[in-house]
Design a protein that fits this description.
The complex is a heterodimer of chains A (369) and B (629). Chain A has one helix spanning 2-21, and strands at 29-30, 43-48, 59-65, 68-73, 76-81, 84-88, 99-104, 111-115, 118-123, 126-130, 142-148, 151-156, 159-164, 170-173, 185-190, 194-199, 203-208, 213-217, 239-245, 248-253, 256-260, 265-268, 280-285, 291-295, 298-302, 307-312, 319-324, 330-333, 344-350, 353-358, 361-367. Chain A has a single domain (55-316), classed as YVTN repeat-like/Quinoprotein amine dehydrogenase (Methylamine Dehydrogenase, Chain H, 7 Propeller), CATH 2.130.10. Chain A is built from one helix and 31 strands. The termini of chain A are far apart. The longest helix of chain A has 20 residues, at 2-21. With 369 residues, chain A is mainly β. In chain A, strands 1-28-27-26-25-24-23 form a seven-stranded mixed beta sheet, with no helix packed on it. In chain A, strands 2-31-30-29 form a four-stranded antiparallel beta sheet, with no helix packed on it. The relative contact order of chain A is 0.14. Among the domains of chain B are: 82-198, YVTN repeat-like/Quinoprotein amine dehydrogenase (Methylamine Dehydrogenase, Chain H, 7 Propeller), CATH 2.130.10; 399-500; 517-626, Cytochrome c-like domain (Cytochrome Bc1 Complex, Chain D, domain 2, Orthogonal Bundle). In chain B, the strands form nine sheets. Chain B has a four-stranded antiparallel beta sheet with strand order 1-2-3-4, with no helix packed on it. The chains are: A mainly beta (369), B alpha+beta (629).
C-alpha cells in the first residue's frame, strides 16, 4: 500500500514537472524582449554535400585531426584537407562503404574506421582491414571505435572487443565474460583507467582497466518507459553513445541523456532541460560540465547550466538557434545558418569550431563568438 | 721405379683433373673443419666516426661492435652488445652509438668516448635498425617482427609510441636536414592471393613522429637499405623484384628475380611521391640481392652491394637519371638498361652487406659478412685497396661453408638467385610460387620458414622429399638453379647449416613459459578430444594429433579439405608450428591471409580439425595459443 502511494506521488510529481518544465515554441522569447541571455557559442555553418565534394549526404560520423577532417558517410570515407575532399572506398581497401564510427590515434595520426563490414585502419593512405573472417573481430558491424594507448576498442553487433596493436591479440567481451545482457554494443569510450560501453538494451558497461573488473549501470526503472526515479541511475537501458571525459561519463539513450561523475547521476530529458529531443544518437563531452548532444531534432550544447540548440526549424526549415537559461527561459537568437539537417549523428571539435555529421550533409560550424 | 712414379703421378693428375671437372675448383680447396666452436665475427654493418679516423663494425656473429683504426684496420676495441645485432647509428653529435639487437628486442647505448655501454633500452619485436632525430630527442627503431617503428625518448629510452610500417620493417635513413625519415621492409605487405607483391617506403615526419606518406613499391618483395643524398633530392632503395606469379620454368632474362633499385625524390621527378624502378642486372648476368646502398657526397656515384654475387655495383648517377628522364617506364624488366648507367662491378668478399663512404667520398668500405673481411675501395679507381681481416677463426668450418653456399647465387643459371633470395636472412619471403615440376599453373605453394627443422621431415608440401639433402640437392639443381649444382660435400655443409638454424625467440610466450589465460584456454581447445556437443573428435580431426610433438607435426600427410582445382593432390605434409604467428599467409598455397581464415574460410566441413563448434572468442583463444608455438 505504501509502495503504491509512493509510486502515485512520484507519477504526480513527474506529470507536474513535465507541465512546468516543457517549453513549447509559444514560450520562446525573441531576443529583443530579453535583457540577459546567456552567452552561448554562435556559429556560421558551412555545409558540405555531394554538391561540393562529399561522397554521400548521409554522414554517420565525423573526426577532426588538426587541419584534416574525416567524414564517415554511407558511401565511403571522406578526407577534407586544404579545401579538397578525397574519398576512400572499398576499392582502396576500406572494409565497407558505410562508415559508422571514427577514432583517431593521437600519437600516430592513424584513423580507425568502424564500418558495416569490418574495422579499417587508415595510416598515411594505407588501409588495413580487420573482419570477422580474417581477424579476431567478433562481428563486421562496428558501431563504435575508440583508441587508448596501443589498444583499439570496438563496439560491434556481437559484443565488445579490444585489439592490442602491438601483439595483434584480440580480446572479446560479451555475455559470457561480462555483465552484458544484450550483445548489441553501440558505442565505446576508452581511457587509460576505464572503458565504457553503450549497450543497446543492456545499459552502460564499465571496465576498470586496473582491476579488470566489469561493472554495469542500469536504469533503476528497468525497461519501464516512464521515469520514476530520476537521477537515481542511468536514464534508460537503450544506450546509444557514451563519452568519458575528465572522469565523468556522459551517456546518450533514445530516451534522454545521463551524466555520472562516479558518485551522482544527473539525467536530462526534454521536459526539464534544453534537450530538443530525448532521442539521442550521439553524445560528446567537452569536460566535466559541458557536452554536445546529437539528436533527431537538432544539435544541442549544454554548458553546465544553459542550453543552446542549433538546427533548421522543424516547421519552416529556416536556420534556428535557441538558448535556454538555467531558469528555463528560452530565447530565440537570430541566425543565418544552421547545420545541414536536424537529424544529427555526430560531432567533433576543431579548436573553437565544430564539425557536425547529419543525415543530409556535413556541417562546419565556424565559431563566431 | 721412376716410370712407376711417373705413372702414379700421371694417374693422380688424371684423378685430380677428373675431380676438378666433376666438382669444380672449390672442391679441392681446404677441407672445412668440423671442430670450430669460436663464433665468426660476421660483420654486417659499418659506420665511420665523424672525424673518419675510426671504423665501427657491427659483428652479428659475435654480438659486438668492433672499433678499428680506419687507416690501418687495426682493432682498437670490442664492445659486447646484445644478441644478433642488426643495425647501428651514431647520434648526430657523435657522442653516442645506438645498436639494435634483433634477438634481444633491445637497443644498446654506447658512450663513444669511453666505449662504455651506458644503457640498454627495450624496443619492439626484433629491432633491426635505429636512427636518432637531428635534435637528439627521439629515437626510431625499425622492428622486423613487429612490422612497426618504435619511437623512444632519446634521453630515457621510454617508449612514446609505435608507428605502423611495412611488413618486416628493417631499414631506416634520415635526410641530412632531419626533416624526413624513410623506412623499408623485407617482407611484402599483404595483398590478395595470387596478386603481385607490394611493398612501401614509409615516410615519417620525425618531428611529429608520424607517418605522413607511403610510397608504393609495386611488385617488390624484399626492400633493404635506403640511402639519401646529402641535399635530400635523391633517395635510393635496394630491393628484390620476384616473378612468383609465373611458373619457374623460364629462369633466364630475369624470370625468377630481377635485382633493382627504386629511386625517388626531386631529382627523379617533380611529381611528389613518384618512384622509379631501375634494374641492376645484365641480359646474361645477375647481381643477386642488392642490399647496402651509399650515395657519394657529390651525388655522382651510387654504390650498391650484392649479397648473393660478392660484388659492388657502381652507378653513374647523372647517366642513370638521364636514362630515366629520357625513357618511358617500366624499365625494371629491361635488362639492357643497366648498361647505360652501371660503370663498374667490383669484386669483394663473401656476402657483402653494409657499406659506408668516407666523408670526402674518396673511399668506401664494405662489410663482407661471410668471410669476416672489410674491403676498402678507392672511389677514383674503383679498386679494392685494402682487405681488412677481422679477428676470429681463420679456418672455414663446415657450417660456415654451408652458410656461404646458402647465401651465394653462383650456383643458379647466370647467377640469378640463391637460397637466401626466397629465405631472406634464412627465414622465408611471404610469397607463393608456381614451381615447374607440378605443371604450369598447378600446385601453387607458399614458402615456409626454415628454422629448427630437425624432426620435421619430410619436406615439400607434398611430403615427397624425405631429407634436406634431397630437398636442397637434386631437386634444387633440377628445378631452381638450372645450372651447376654443388658437390656432395658442399651439399652436406649446406644441409648442416640449414639444420643448425635455431628458432627465434617467441615474442608471444612469456619468458618463463607461462601462458596467459587466453593461451591456456586455447591450449585446451588444441588438445581436446571431445567437441562442445560432447561428441568424440576423430583422431585425425584433433589438432594435437597431426600437429603433435614439440615441433607441432607428426610428419605425416593428410587431406584437410584445402585442395584447390589447380592442385594435383589434396594430400599434404603436416607443417610444423614453430613461429607460426610470423609466417602468413597460410595453408599450402598461401590462400589463407591470416590464421583466422584457415578456419573461418577454409574449413567449412571440419576436415582441418573440428572447429565449427567453436565461438569466435574460443577460436581467438586457439589462435592465441598457436602464436606461442
Amino acid at each position: 500500500m505504501k509502495q503504491a502511494a509512493m509510486i502515485g506521488l512520484l507519477l504526480a510529481a513527474v506529470v507536474a514537472s513535465a507541465q512546468t518544465a516543457a517549453h513549447p515554441v509559444k514560450h520562446v522569447h525573441a531576443i529583443a524582449q530579453t535583457q540577459r541571455v546567456p552567452a552561448m557559442p554562435r556559429y556560421r555553418f558551412e555545409n558540405f554535400t555531394t554538391a561540393n565534394g562529399l561522397p554521400d549526404d548521409h554522414v554517420f560520423s565525423v573526426l577532426v585531426d588538426g587541419d584534416r577532417v574525416w567524414a564517415g558517410t554511407n558511401n565511403g570515407l571522406a578526407e577534407f584537407e586544404n579545401g579538397e575532399w578525397k574519398t576512400y572506398t572499398t576499392a582502396d581497401g576500406l572494409a565497407h562503404r558505410a562508415v559508422l564510427s571514427l577514432a583517431l590515434d593521437k600519437r600516430t595520426g592513424d584513423v580507425w574506421a568502424g564500418t558495416m563490414g569490418g574495422l579499417s585502419r587508415i595510416s598515411a593512405g594505407r588501409i588495413d582491414t580487420y573482419t570477422q573472417l580474417n581477424s579476431g573481430l567478433s562481428n563486421d558491424v562496428v558501431y563504435g571505435v575508440s583508441v587508448e594507448g596501443e589498444n583499439v576498442w570496438v563496439a560491434t553487433a556481437a559484443g565488445a572487443g579490444r585489439l592490442n596493436t602491438r601483439t595483434g591479440e584480440w580480446s572479446l567481451y560479451n555475455e559470457r565474460n561480462t555483465p552484458m545482457v544484450e550483445i548489441w554494443a553501440y558505442g565505446v569510450s576508452a581511457a587509460a583507467d576505464k572503458v565504457y560501453y553503450a549497450i543497446w538494451g543492456s545499459g552502460l558497461l564499465e571496465l576498470n582497466q586496473k582491476t579488470g573488473v566489469w561493472d554495469k549501470y542500469d536504469d533503476p526503472d528497468g525497461e519501464n518507459e516512464i521515469v520514476l526515479l530520476k537521477d537515481q541511475g542511468l536514464i534508460h537501458e537503450i544506450v546509444t553513445s557514451v563519452s568519458y571525459v575528465d572522469g565523468v561519463v556522459w551517456a546518450a539513450t533514445y530516451f534522454g541523456a545521463s551524466h555520472y561523475d562516479g558518485r551522482f547521476w544527473h539525467n536530462f530529458l526534454t521536459k526539464d532541460s534544453g534537450l530538443p529531443s530525448n532521442f539521442i544518437n550521439s553524445i560528446k563531452g567537452v569536460d566535466r560540465d559541458r557536452a554536445w548532444f546529437c539528436t533527431d531534432k537538432g544539435l544541442a550544447y549544454y554548458d553546465g547550466a544553459n542550453w543552446a540548440v542549433y538546427r533548421p526549424s522543424l516547421e519552416t526549415g529556416k536556420a534556428e538557434m535557441t538558448v535556454r537559461d538555467a531558469a528555463g527561459k528560452v530565447t530565440e537568437i537570430p541566425v543565418e545558418t544552421a547545420p545541414a539537417h536536424n537529424y544529427i549523428l555526430g560531432i567533433d571539435f576543431q579548436g573553437p569550431d565544430i564539425w557536425v555529421a547529419t543525415a543530409k550533409g556535413l556541417s562546419h560550424g565556424v565559431y563566431q563568438r | 721405379m721412376r716410370r712407376r712414379l711417373g705413372e702414379a703421378l700421371l694417374g693422380a693428375a688424371v684423378v685430380c683433373l677428373a675431380l676438378l671437372l666433376r666438382y669444380g675448383a672449390t672442391t679441392v680447396a681446404a677441407e672445412p673443419s668440423l671442430d670450430i666452436t669460436e663464433p665468426y665475427a660476421s660483420p654486417l654493418e659499418l659506420l665511420l666516426s665523424p672525424d673518419g679516423s675510426r671504423l665501427y663494425v657491427l659483428c652479428q656473429g659475435t654480438g659486438e661492435v668492433r672499433v678499428l683504426e680506419a687507416a690501418s684496420g687495426r682493432e682498437l676495441q670490442a664492445i659486447p652488445v646484445g644478441r644478433s645485432p642488426r643495425g647501428f647509428f651514431f647520434s648526430p653529435d657523435g657522442r653516442r652509438l645506438f645498436v639494435a639487437n634483433s634477438w634481444d628486442d633491445s637497443v644498446t647505448v654506447i658512450d663513444t668516448k669511453s666505449s662504455a655501454v651506458t644503457a640498454t633500452w627495450k624496443a619492439g619485436f626484433e629491432p633491426s635498425s635505429v636512427v636518432e632525430d637531428g635534435a637528439g630527442k627521439t629515437l626510431f627503431v625499425a622492428d622486423r617482427i613487429g612490422n612497426d617503428i618504435t619511437v623512444l625518448d632519446a634521453a630515457t629510452g621510454a617508449e612514446k609510441e609505435t608507428l605502423e610500417a611495412g611488413r618486416g620493417a628493417s631499414y631506416l635513413a634520415m635526410t641530412a636536414d632531419g626533416r624526413r625519415l624513410y623506412a623499408t621492409h623485407v617482407y611484402p605487405n599483404p595483398t590478395p592471393h595470387r596478386t603481385p607483391p607490394e611493398s612501401e617506403i614509409t615516410v615519417i615526419d620525425p618531428v611529429r613522429a608520424q607517418v605522413i606518406d607511403r610510397l608504393k613499391l609495386e611488385s617488390i618483395a624484399g626492400a633493404f637499405h635506403v640511402a639519401l643524398s646529402r641535399d635530400g633530392r635523391l633517395g635510393v632503395v635496394a630491393e628484390l623484384h620476384p616473378k612468383n606469379l609465373v611458373p619457374l620454368a623460364h629462369v633466364e632474362h630475369g624470370w625468377a628475380f630481377v635485382d633493382t633499385l627504386t629511386i625517388f625524390g626531386a631529382d627523379v621527378s617533380s611529381e611528389p611521391g613518384r618512384t622509379v624502378e631501375v634494374p641492376l642486372d645484365e641480359l646474361d648476368r645477375y647481381y643477386a640481392r642488392p642490399f647496402g646502398v651509399a650515395i657519394a657526397p657529390d651525388k655522382s656515384r651510387i654504390y650498391v652491394t650484392h649479397g648473393g654475387s660478392d660484388v659492388v655495383t657502381v652507378i653513374d648517377t647523372r647517366r642513370m637519371l638521364a636514362y630515366v628522364h629520357a625513357h618511358r617506364e617500366p624499365f625494371a624488366e629491361d635488362l639492357s638498361a643497366s648498361a647505360h648507367y652501371v660503370v663498374a662491378r667490383i669484386a669483394v668478399g663473401k656476402n657483402p652487406r653494409g657499406v659506408v663512404l668516407s666523408r670526402d667520398g674518396a673511399r668506401f668500405y664494405v662489410a663482407n659478412r661471410l668471410d669476416d673481411t672489410i674491403s676498402a675501395i678507392d672511389t677514383r679507381t674503383n679498386r679494392v685497396t685494402q682487405t681488412i681481416r677481422l679477428r676470429g677463426p681463420e679456418k672455414v668450418s663446415a657450417l660456415r661453408r654451408g652458410e656461404q653456399t646458402f647465401y651465394s647465387a653462383q650456383y643458379a643459371f647466370q647467377g640469378e638467385f640463391g637460397c637466401a633470395n626466397c629465405h631472406i636472412d634464412s627465414t622465408f619471403d611471404g610469397l607463393q610460387w608456381d614451381l615447374e615440376p607440378d605443371g604450369f599453373g598447378r600446385d601453387i605453394v607458399a614458402n615456409r620458414l626454415i628454422e629448427d627443422l630437425r624432426g620435421t621431415e619430410p619436406f615439400k608440401w607434398n611430403g615427397k622429399n624425405p631429407t634436406l639433402a634431397v630437398e636442397c640437392g637434386v631437386r634444387t639443381e633440377m628445378y631452381f638453379w638450372r645450372s651447376q649444382n654443388y658437390d656432395d660435400l658442399r651439399l652436406a655443409d649446406l644441409v648442416l647449416y640449414i639444420r643448425s638454424l635455431p628458432s627465434r625467440p617467441n615474442r608471444f610466450r612469456a619468458a618463463d613459459g607461462e601462458l596467459t589465460s587466453a593461451q591456456e584456454r586455447g591450449r585446451a581447445i588444441f588438445n581436446r578430444t571431445v567437441d562442445k556437443l560432447g561428441q568424440p573428435i576423430p583422431q585425425g580431426n584433433q589438432c594435437a594429433y597431426c600437429h603433435s610433438g614439440p615441433k607441432g607435426t607428426n610428419q605425416k600427410s593428410f587431406d584437410v579439405g584445402t585442395k584447390k582445382p589447380t592442385d594435383n593432390s589434396g594430400l599434404l605434409d603436416t607443417p610444423q608450428l614453430m613461429s607460426v604467428a610470423l609466417t602468413a599467409p597460410y595453408l599450402h598455397d598461401g590462400s589463407a591471409a591470416t590464421l583466422e581464415e584457415i578456419w573461418t574460410v577454409y574449413n567449412p566441413h571440419d576436415q582441418h580439425g573440428r572447429t565449427n563448434d567453436l565461438t569466435k572468442d574460443e577460436l581467438n583463444d586457439l589462435i592465441e595459443y598457436l602464436r606461442t608455438r
